[in-house]
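Morning. Coffee machine broken again, so started the prediction first thing and wrote up yesterday's gels while waiting. Chain of 218 residues, entered below exactly as on the submission form.
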Amino acid sequence: MALRLLMLGPPGAGKGTQAARIAGDHGVPKISTGDMLRNAVASGSSLGHLVKETVARGALVSDDVIVALVRERLTEPDTASGYVLDGFPRTVNQAEALDGLLDGAPLSVVEIRVPDDELVRRVRGRRICERCGTTVSAFDGDPSQAQACKVCGGRLVQRSDDSEQVVRDRLKVYWRETQPMIGFYEGRTTFRRVDGAQPPMAVYQAIAEAIAAMGVKG
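Came back before lunch.
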Protein backbone atom coordinates (compact mmCIF):
# COMPACT_ATOMS: atom_id res chain seq x y z
CA MET A 1 0.00 0.00 0.00
CA ALA A 2 1.32 3.45 -0.92
CA LEU A 3 2.07 5.82 1.93
CA ARG A 4 -0.63 8.44 2.32
CA LEU A 5 0.09 9.75 5.78
CA LEU A 6 -1.39 12.53 7.87
CA MET A 7 0.77 13.65 10.79
CA LEU A 8 -0.97 15.29 13.74
CA GLY A 9 0.63 16.92 16.76
CA PRO A 10 0.71 20.12 18.81
CA PRO A 11 3.33 22.87 18.50
CA GLY A 12 6.64 21.58 19.82
CA ALA A 13 5.82 17.89 19.31
CA GLY A 14 8.40 17.53 16.53
CA LYS A 15 5.73 16.76 13.95
CA GLY A 16 7.40 18.62 11.08
CA THR A 17 10.79 16.99 11.69
CA GLN A 18 9.32 13.52 11.91
CA ALA A 19 7.12 14.09 8.85
CA ALA A 20 10.15 15.12 6.79
CA ARG A 21 12.10 12.06 7.90
CA ILE A 22 9.28 9.61 7.16
CA ALA A 23 8.72 11.25 3.77
CA GLY A 24 12.42 10.89 2.99
CA ASP A 25 12.42 7.23 4.01
CA HIS A 26 9.58 6.46 1.61
CA GLY A 27 10.75 8.75 -1.19
CA VAL A 28 7.55 10.80 -1.19
CA PRO A 29 6.97 14.55 -0.74
CA LYS A 30 6.10 16.21 2.54
CA ILE A 31 3.18 18.49 1.79
CA SER A 32 2.55 21.38 4.17
CA THR A 33 -0.09 24.10 4.05
CA GLY A 34 2.53 26.83 4.47
CA ASP A 35 4.56 25.58 1.52
CA MET A 36 1.46 25.31 -0.65
CA LEU A 37 0.39 28.86 0.15
CA ARG A 38 3.85 30.27 -0.59
CA ASN A 39 4.15 28.29 -3.81
CA ALA A 40 0.69 29.36 -4.97
CA VAL A 41 1.58 33.03 -4.50
CA ALA A 42 4.93 32.59 -6.25
CA SER A 43 3.30 30.80 -9.20
CA GLY A 44 1.17 33.80 -10.11
CA SER A 45 -1.83 31.54 -10.79
CA SER A 46 -5.39 32.76 -10.29
CA LEU A 47 -5.52 30.76 -7.07
CA GLY A 48 -2.21 32.31 -6.04
CA HIS A 49 -3.55 35.82 -6.63
CA LEU A 50 -6.55 35.00 -4.46
CA VAL A 51 -4.29 33.76 -1.66
CA LYS A 52 -2.08 36.86 -1.94
CA GLU A 53 -5.06 39.22 -1.75
CA THR A 54 -6.51 37.32 1.23
CA VAL A 55 -3.25 37.45 3.16
CA ALA A 56 -2.77 41.13 2.28
CA ARG A 57 -6.16 41.90 3.86
CA GLY A 58 -5.07 40.09 7.02
CA ALA A 59 -7.86 37.55 6.56
CA LEU A 60 -7.68 33.78 6.98
CA VAL A 61 -7.52 31.68 3.85
CA SER A 62 -10.86 29.88 3.54
CA ASP A 63 -11.35 26.12 3.69
CA ASP A 64 -12.45 26.16 0.04
CA VAL A 65 -9.17 27.75 -1.06
CA ILE A 66 -7.03 25.44 1.09
CA VAL A 67 -8.86 22.39 -0.25
CA ALA A 68 -8.42 23.66 -3.81
CA LEU A 69 -4.68 24.04 -3.21
CA VAL A 70 -4.45 20.51 -1.83
CA ARG A 71 -6.49 19.11 -4.72
CA GLU A 72 -4.12 20.80 -7.17
CA ARG A 73 -1.02 19.63 -5.29
CA LEU A 74 -2.17 16.00 -5.16
CA THR A 75 -2.40 15.89 -8.96
CA GLU A 76 1.32 16.55 -9.36
CA PRO A 77 3.45 13.59 -10.53
CA ASP A 78 5.59 13.36 -7.40
CA THR A 79 2.55 12.32 -5.32
CA ALA A 80 1.86 9.19 -7.39
CA SER A 81 3.69 6.97 -4.87
CA GLY A 82 2.24 8.77 -1.84
CA TYR A 83 2.87 11.75 0.40
CA VAL A 84 2.99 12.98 3.99
CA LEU A 85 0.56 15.75 4.96
CA ASP A 86 1.72 18.25 7.56
CA GLY A 87 -0.64 21.08 8.56
CA PHE A 88 -3.65 19.90 6.57
CA PRO A 89 -6.39 19.20 7.42
CA ARG A 90 -6.89 21.50 10.42
CA THR A 91 -10.66 21.21 10.83
CA VAL A 92 -13.33 18.53 10.51
CA ASN A 93 -14.64 20.28 7.39
CA GLN A 94 -11.19 20.03 5.81
CA ALA A 95 -10.89 16.39 6.92
CA GLU A 96 -14.21 15.56 5.25
CA ALA A 97 -13.05 17.34 2.10
CA LEU A 98 -9.81 15.33 2.15
CA ASP A 99 -11.82 12.09 2.30
CA GLY A 100 -13.55 13.26 -0.87
CA LEU A 101 -10.24 13.99 -2.58
CA LEU A 102 -8.93 10.54 -1.65
CA ASP A 103 -11.99 8.90 -3.23
CA GLY A 104 -11.71 5.74 -1.13
CA ALA A 105 -7.91 5.50 -1.05
CA PRO A 106 -6.68 4.65 2.48
CA LEU A 107 -5.21 7.41 4.64
CA SER A 108 -2.89 6.54 7.52
CA VAL A 109 -3.10 8.97 10.47
CA VAL A 110 -0.46 9.22 13.21
CA GLU A 111 -0.91 11.56 16.15
CA ILE A 112 2.15 12.49 18.21
CA ARG A 113 0.78 13.03 21.72
CA VAL A 114 2.91 15.03 24.18
CA PRO A 115 1.83 16.39 27.61
CA ASP A 116 1.46 20.17 27.69
CA ASP A 117 4.07 20.58 30.44
CA GLU A 118 6.64 18.75 28.32
CA LEU A 119 5.82 20.94 25.31
CA VAL A 120 6.28 24.07 27.41
CA ARG A 121 9.63 22.76 28.67
CA ARG A 122 10.82 22.12 25.13
CA VAL A 123 9.79 25.48 23.76
CA ARG A 124 11.29 27.35 26.73
CA GLY A 125 14.58 25.65 25.87
CA ARG A 126 14.46 26.78 22.25
CA ARG A 127 16.89 29.50 21.13
CA ILE A 128 17.40 31.36 17.85
CA CYS A 129 20.60 32.90 16.52
CA GLU A 130 20.42 36.70 16.26
CA ARG A 131 22.82 36.65 13.32
CA CYS A 132 21.81 33.77 11.01
CA GLY A 133 18.42 32.69 12.35
CA THR A 134 19.39 29.08 13.12
CA THR A 135 17.07 27.53 15.73
CA VAL A 136 18.53 25.34 18.46
CA SER A 137 16.39 23.37 20.88
CA ALA A 138 16.33 20.80 23.69
CA PHE A 139 18.22 22.71 26.37
CA ASP A 140 15.77 21.81 29.14
CA GLY A 141 14.78 25.44 29.56
CA ASP A 142 18.25 26.36 30.82
CA PRO A 143 19.75 29.13 28.64
CA SER A 144 23.19 28.63 30.23
CA GLN A 145 23.51 25.45 28.16
CA ALA A 146 23.31 27.36 24.87
CA GLN A 147 25.65 30.33 24.59
CA ALA A 148 26.63 30.68 20.92
CA CYS A 149 25.41 29.46 17.54
CA LYS A 150 27.46 26.52 16.25
CA VAL A 151 26.83 27.66 12.67
CA CYS A 152 28.09 31.25 12.80
CA GLY A 153 29.01 31.98 16.42
CA GLY A 154 26.19 34.48 16.86
CA ARG A 155 24.37 35.04 20.15
CA LEU A 156 21.46 32.68 20.87
CA VAL A 157 18.34 34.37 22.26
CA GLN A 158 14.83 33.32 23.20
CA ARG A 159 12.06 34.34 20.82
CA SER A 160 9.48 36.66 22.34
CA ASP A 161 6.69 34.23 21.45
CA ASP A 162 8.41 31.34 23.22
CA SER A 163 7.42 32.48 26.71
CA GLU A 164 5.50 29.99 28.85
CA GLN A 165 2.24 31.96 28.75
CA VAL A 166 2.32 32.36 24.97
CA VAL A 167 3.03 28.65 24.53
CA ARG A 168 0.18 27.64 26.85
CA ASP A 169 -2.17 29.99 25.01
CA ARG A 170 -1.17 28.41 21.69
CA LEU A 171 -1.79 24.96 23.11
CA LYS A 172 -5.28 25.94 24.28
CA VAL A 173 -6.09 27.07 20.76
CA TYR A 174 -4.60 23.88 19.31
CA TRP A 175 -6.65 21.56 21.51
CA ARG A 176 -9.84 23.56 21.04
CA GLU A 177 -9.50 23.52 17.25
CA THR A 178 -7.87 20.14 16.68
CA GLN A 179 -9.49 17.79 19.21
CA PRO A 180 -12.70 17.45 17.13
CA MET A 181 -10.60 16.43 14.11
CA ILE A 182 -8.67 13.89 16.17
CA GLY A 183 -12.05 12.46 17.16
CA PHE A 184 -12.97 12.32 13.47
CA TYR A 185 -10.03 9.98 12.81
CA GLU A 186 -9.29 8.04 15.99
CA GLY A 187 -12.02 5.43 15.53
CA ARG A 188 -10.52 4.28 12.24
CA THR A 189 -8.33 1.21 11.87
CA THR A 190 -5.74 3.40 10.12
CA PHE A 191 -5.26 5.70 13.14
CA ARG A 192 -2.36 5.35 15.57
CA ARG A 193 -1.20 7.46 18.52
CA VAL A 194 2.45 7.50 19.56
CA ASP A 195 4.14 8.79 22.70
CA GLY A 196 5.95 11.96 21.67
CA ALA A 197 7.54 12.50 25.09
CA GLN A 198 10.21 9.94 24.19
CA PRO A 199 13.59 10.88 22.65
CA PRO A 200 13.26 11.84 18.96
CA MET A 201 14.72 8.57 17.66
CA ALA A 202 12.30 6.53 19.78
CA VAL A 203 9.39 8.62 18.45
CA TYR A 204 10.61 8.01 14.91
CA GLN A 205 10.80 4.26 15.53
CA ALA A 206 7.28 4.27 16.99
CA ILE A 207 5.93 6.11 13.94
CA ALA A 208 7.70 3.74 11.54
CA GLU A 209 6.25 0.74 13.41
CA ALA A 210 2.78 2.29 13.38
CA ILE A 211 2.96 2.84 9.63
CA ALA A 212 4.13 -0.74 9.04
CA ALA A 213 1.31 -2.07 11.25
CA MET A 214 -1.17 -0.28 8.99
CA GLY A 215 0.12 -2.20 5.99
CA VAL A 216 2.30 0.49 4.40
CA LYS A 217 5.51 -0.80 2.86
CA GLY A 218 8.64 1.31 2.80
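Helices lie at 15-26, 33-43, 46-56, 63-73, 92-102, 116-124, 164-185, 200-213. Going to sketch it on the whiteboard this afternoon.
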